[in-house]
Structure formats: structure tokens, C-alpha cells
DNA sequence: CCAACCATGTAAGCTGTTACATGATTGA
DNA sequence: TCAATCATGTAACAGCTTACATGGTTGG
């Protein structure tokens, strides 16, 4: 299961869609970061179908893909994964985007996300303070600093999001 | 030429290195984001050699790879590319990290980088304000917001870096 | 009627990942 | 001497990108 496969599965879980409909989502929303062109989407959909996670349904004339029970289970398992430092943060974020109405899991996610972001910030600071880091030319140091700043912003985002989700509970 | 190939070429330009030496750089610095394991590095190095961008030199017992004149030219051309919105920002940043001692080109880079970051911020804000954006579940909105926050941080970084490089000129 | 969009795919080629394989050297 | 590190690769496999191919429908 690739990230693209999970993105497709999640979109289909939200509502049954055709291959073309899925492509439109990627073209017209920021989810476009996760994919692209027919050459990747259609084969991925076939894999999902082969694995029994989605099935083709004829609604009137059009054939759309709907998630199966097996698919729901597999998707829920994926959603429950905690964030780790090894994982691409963008893929973790993709999971978060699909965590609708699941406040406890969302809060767990944000916790582990913030932890990983923090760990990365510390690692980058340590690198900049180390001798190889000090010996770097200015531009290279600034490039590392870029990572530091954006990761700090990500950590702050996680803290903000945590607050927002908590406030949501007591209106 | 893949990003990995450019990363390798840049490291070899800075100083001649062996395949193993290159791997160590990826393992011990934040440049590790750009690669990984022998299975990708050694084939990539062979391609660089085949293309005449690097050549193998025997220094004492060890054989190290050095950049050729053709390689220098190709690398300089790559470095001069402006940042575009289509490009993966991480790859743009990789270019920046190699722009040592080239203040004018660095400033140009930061300008185009900031422009792209700004454009992305505006696009994300527009999306969040649009009807499909409004209809999103909270978690999905927050995920987009993550992109917004980190991109804003990236834009600020570019402005800061611009100032630092300018100050550097008049001590 | 023609352009644009709906809609689904296939094929070639390249890259990268994972895992395996091999052997030399060095420090405790 | 034994583990770690130096050092260089190969092979199987899967995935994505680009480009191509095909045909239906709809609005101006």
C-alpha cells in the first residue's frame, strides 16, 4: 500500500467516486501534492480492487468505486498509526486529514506529531552547533535553518490544532 | 539528471569523494533527506561517470570521484535555475545549499523562492475561503492550515536569509 | 461543428527501495 | 580474535512520469 493508494482509499471512503472524479480532487485541491496523472491513479485503483478494498458499483450509467468492509478496516488501521520520525511528515498529515469526527485519535495524532517535530528541531539545532555544522558555508547553513524554521512552525501548528480540537468539545 | 544526481555532483564538486564518503554525508547530515542507500547511490554515480560529469581518480590507494569541466558547467547551469512553483521546494533548497560564495545568485534565488512561497500562501488561503474549502471537515481544514503555516515560515525564512546575505556584504 | 471536457486506460523507461553478497581493514 | 566499519556493488521488484491512444458528451 503506497501513500497514493491510501489517499485514494480515503477519498472513496468519504464518498464513492469514479477514477475521473478522483483525478479531479487531486487537480483542484491541495491534495494534489499526493498525486497526479492517470498513469498512476488507474493502476493504483486496480490494485485496490484486486486487494478487495474497493469495489466497482454501477449507479445508473456511471460506474463508481465504493469502499468495502475490508477496505474500511484496512483504512481504519492505517489511520490509527502514530506518527514516527522515520515517516514522511506529509504522509502523516494525509492521515490526519482523513481523521474526521474522531477527536481522541486526532488528539493522539497531534501529540505524536508534535513530539516528532520537536525531536527534529533539536536534531537540526544540534547539527548547526556541531563542528561539521559550523564549518558549513553560509548558504548551506541557511538551508538547514530553513528546515529548522519550517519544522518549528509545524510544531506550533500542532499545538494550535490541539487547542482548537479541545475547545470544540465544550462550546 | 535526478535530484540525487545533482546532490552527488555538488558534493563531489566541493571536494573529490568516494562512493562510501558520499554515503556518509547522507547518513550524518540533514542532506539525508535527499538519499539513502547504496542501491541508489552507486548506480547514480555510474550514470554521472557515463555522462562524463565526474571521473574516477586514484589518490594513493583509494579511488575517488572528481568533477570534470563538463560537470562543473552542468552543475553551474543547474544552480542558476530560478525557483518555480512547479518545482519541489526541497530540491530548490538543495540548489541553494550549494550556492556558496555566490551572493548575487543567492539573492536572486531567495527572491524567486519568496515569490513562490507567497503564491502558495495565497493559493491555500483562497482554497480555505472557497466553498469546497469551507465544506471540509475540521481535520482536513487543519491539514491545509499546516501547509499554510509552514509555507509562511518558509517565506519569512527567505526574507531573513536575504537580509543576512546583504549585511554580510558591508561588515 | 468544434472545442472543451468527461472518462479510461496502456507502454516505455527510469528511479528508488530492499535485501543480499563480498571482502579488506582496524581497534578493543 | 571478533565486531565494527570501510568499501563497492548486484538483483528483484514496485512505483511513478511521460506520452500516447481512444471514444463519448456537451455547450457555445
From TrEMBL, chains A, B:
Gene3D superfamilies, per database record: Winged helix-like DNA-binding domain superfamily/Winged helix DNA-binding domain
The cross-references to Pfam families, in alphabetical order and at most eight, read: PadR
Q: Which InterPro entries match?
A: Tscrpt_reg_PadR_N, WH-like_DNA-bd_sf, WH_DNA-bd_sf
Q: Where is the signal peptide?
A: none
Origin: domain of life: Bacteria
User: For the Transcription regulator PadR N-terminal domain, which residue ranges apply?
Assistant: 8-76
What is this protein's name?
A: Transcriptional regulator PadR-like family protein
Q: Species name for this entry? A: Asticcacaulis biprosthecium C19
Amino acid at each position: 500500500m503506497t501513500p497514493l493508494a491510501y489517499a485514494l482509499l480515503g477519498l472513496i471512503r468519504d464518498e464513492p467516486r469514479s477514477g475521473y472524479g478522483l483525478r479531479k480532487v487531486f487537480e483542484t485541491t491541495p491534495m494534489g501534492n499526493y498525486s497526479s496523472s492517470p498513469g498512476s491513479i488507474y493502476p493504483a485503483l486496480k490494485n485496490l480492487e484486486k486487494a478487495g478494498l474497493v469495489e466497482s458499483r454501477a449507479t445508473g450509467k456511471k460506474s463508481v468505486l465504493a469502499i468495502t468492509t475490508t477496505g474500511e478496516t484496512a483504512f481504519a488501521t492505517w489511520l490509527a498509526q502514530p506518527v514516527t520520525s522515520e515517516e514522511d511528515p506529509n504522509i502523516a498529515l494525509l492521515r490526519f486529514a482523513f481523521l474526521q469526527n474522531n477527536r481522541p485519535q486526532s488528539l493522539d495524532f497531534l501529540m505524536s506529531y508534535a513530539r516528532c517535530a520537536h525531536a527534529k528541531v533539536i536534531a537540526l539545532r544540534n547539527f548547526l552547533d556541531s563542528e561539521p555544522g559550523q564549518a558549513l558555508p553560509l548558504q548551506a547553513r541557511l538551508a538547514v535553518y530553513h528546515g529548522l524554521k519550517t519544522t518549528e512552525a509545524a510544531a506550533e501548528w500542532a499545538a494550535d490544532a490541539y487547542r482548537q480540537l479541545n475547545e470544540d468539545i465544550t462550546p
